[in-house]
Amino acid sequence: MANPKIKVSQMSAATTMNSTDYFMVLQDGINKKMTATTMLKNLNSGDVVYVNSTMQAVDFLVATKNDPNSLFVDGNLDNVGIGTNVPLSKLHVAGNIQAGSSSSDGILVESTESLIYTASDQTASIVKPCSVMRSGTLITLNTGVNGLFALSAGSNGQTKTIALAALDSGKTATITVTGLGFSSVVLNAIGKTVVLKYFTSNSKWHVIGGNGYTLV
User: Fold this and answer.
1) What pTM did the predictor assign?
2) Are residues 185 and 172 in contact, defined by beta-carbon separation less than 8 angstroms?
3) Residue 140 burial class via C-beta count within 10 angstroms: exposed 0-12, middle 13-18, buried 19 and up
4) Burial environment of residue 139 by CB neighbours within 10 A (0 to 12, 13 to 18, 19 or more)
5) For 93-125, how does the pLDDT look when each residue is reduced to its tens digit (9 = 90+)?
6) Three-state SS at 210
7) Which residues touch 182 (CB under 8 Å, ≥6 apart)?
8) pLDDT digit string (tens) for 70-79?
9) Are strands 184-187 and 214-215 parallel, antiparallel or unpaired?
10) What pairing do the DSSP bridges indicate for beta strands 79-82 and 91-93?
């Protein structure tokens, strides 16, 4: 008896799906087929896709290319995290939040940053950028150095506060500000601050407050 021949067909991976395409499912021991539209409707009533509809204490995580915690739902604490898998409140965002379709009409809710300028930075004449994505910059100058910093153009209506947290006596922090009527702002004592606001109408930062700053 000749050996039977079995023909194997190679399957290609689908990259798209239509509403009329079929899923193969097993229901009560019987093979059945279901369209994508029907499957979504049968997940729950009202054409709503439910995740964990039985309300178990199960976490839900969505990872993306550069963030392992783009969306995290803590099934036990009922908290939602964006950018964190340890949400400390009902909604915890580890990063910036922007409301509005563009920087010109949106409201940017930001966190602060801490910049530390060291003696080695000064030797190499490094200029450290103050992030325009942060509402506040706290500057620390290590022992015996002056600090060089820069602030580029911001978003319309954005407010930026720069403050000195620590430095040696007689040293200064100089911040070169893009579009400012003066070339730079100098802070020379702990606790000194400058508050700036940016307007796209003239592409400039404007000084609106502060304590102990000097414009150069």
Assistant:
1) 0.56
2) no
3) middle
4) buried
5) 887 777 665 555 555 666 788 999 999 999 999
6) strand
7) 215, 216
8) 999 999 999 9
9) antiparallel
10) parallel
Residue 22 identity: Y
The beta strand positions in the chain, using DSSP E, are 22-27, 30-35, 60-62, 71-74, 79-82, 91-93, 97-99, 107-109, 112-117, 128-130, 136-141, 147-151, 159-166, 173-177, 184-187, 193-199, 204-211, 214-215
Structural tokens at position 166: 């620590």
**Tokens linked to 36:** 């994508």
Q: What's the longest Cα–Cα distance across the chain?
A: 101
Query: Distance between CA 51 and CA 29 in Å, rounded?
Result: 25
Residues 196 and 211: their CA atoms lie apart, in Å, by 12
CA dihedral sign, ordered 200, 206, 209, 214:
positive
Query: How far is residue 24's CA from residue 10's CA, in Å, rounded to a whole number?
Result: 18
- Say how many C-beta atoms besides its own lie within 10 A of residue 46's C-beta: 6
- Token pair of 210, please? 């502060």
Please, what are the domains in the chain?
A: 16-50 (no CATH), 112-215 (2.60.120)
